[in-house]
Amino acid sequence: MASTVELVSPYEVREQFMPLHGRKTRWFIGVAHRRAGKTVADINELVIGATKCRRPNPRFAYVAPQLNQAKDIAWVYLKEYTAFLNPKINESELWVELPGGARIRIYGADNPDRLRGIYLDGVVLDEFGDMDPTIWTQVIRPALSDRKGWACFIGTPKGKNTFHRLWVEAEDDPDWTRLMLKASETRLLDQKELADARKMMSDDEYAQEYECSFDAAVRGAYYGKELNEAEAGDRITSVPYDPRLQVHTAWDLGVADSTVVWFVQTVGRETRFIDVLKGEGVGLDWYAKQLQDRPYVWGNHYLPHDVEVRELGTGKSRKEVLEGLGISVTVCPNIPVADGIQAVRMLLATSWFDRAKCKEGIEALRMYRREFDDKRQEFRVNPLHDWTSHYADAARYFAVAHQERSTSVMKKRNTAWVV
Description:
The protein is α/β, with parallel strands linked by helices and about 425 residues long. The protein contains 15 helices and 17 strands. The chain has helices at about 20, 40-50, 65-70, 75-80, 135-145, 160-170, 185, 190-200, 205-210, 225-230, 285-290, 320-325, 335-350, 360-365, 390-419, and strands spanning about 25-30, 60-65, 90, 95, 105-110, 120-125, 150-155, 175-180, 235, 245-250, 260-265, 270-280, 300-305, 330, 350-355, 370-375, 380-385. Strand 11 and strand 12 (about 270-280) form a beta hairpin. Helix 2 crosses helix 4 and helix 14 packs across helix 15. The longest helix is centred in the C-terminal third of the chain and has 31 residues, at about 390-419. The radius of gyration is 24 Å and the shape is globular. The relative contact order is 0.11.
């Protein structure tokens, strides 16, 4: 008679996370305070899903904003909480394979190409508020379709971004399960620790990190105040293309990452952001085609100063390539980033945004922030470089270059009038 061996997981489920593990819905969204144990719960939800899945060659994924971040934390947990199953482990590819063939892999949202073309039976997106929202709509959601896989979004609030929008939309949707874990309610952290944290943090910081407030200002955000004022003033709305006005573009050119192009119209002191385009892994001819397909009357095309640098492979600069494709380039002056940020702040005071077409761009500007040094507990001088940077840099190029060009034109007009 064959004997059986009972395998016992080392995971001790916190009752606060039972709604995650016991849900019957395909979609889950959880908002959790710091040190609630969400990453451990995330990893074990994947392990539970992988052990129960009966499809052939099951595939599961944990996605964090940055791969290095995921490797330092989630990868350690994944190996720890699957060790009792004696899995195969691939350290270079960051996956474990359970007996029976189910595989769980760690990914970073900073490299979405690694996720393209795969299929998934289940996925956890940890700290989704820090990710480019298009990684869900354009990459991960399609990967779930043929297997009808599930997804869990979990994190701490970062203002009213896509994570917040999912939270609101899920409220009355029977296909979703929602969970909010506030430090004042979970009892996972003792009161003395919370009192000490409250003394050392601003009200907004404490409300965001421990009380799961979406209304708190994003820490270190450059344009949060200006965009809140635009929202309150109904300047984030429907802003259709006006065929009587020229459309200017402002580009942030990526090489190994994203390229972003803003489409802007101006009238008097008013600036109208009518559309934004983002591409990855495509040549300049693709962007030229995108412009050709739009029925706009073109004005100026603003690009950063390094567009004039010649590439070793072709011997041509990207400025020359774009002009060969029919796009006349205006080179943005090279000024300090801090001065450019101030120029954007001034521009936003009289700017309008098309809510639908500029959705990702608005969110990126709202999330663009200074880098925080966790060890020193202070902000660094430079902005944090993440997915928001491409949108923010393109807006900065427009603010600087268009302002300089407009000032130059006014000086010429005034001189001609005096003469």
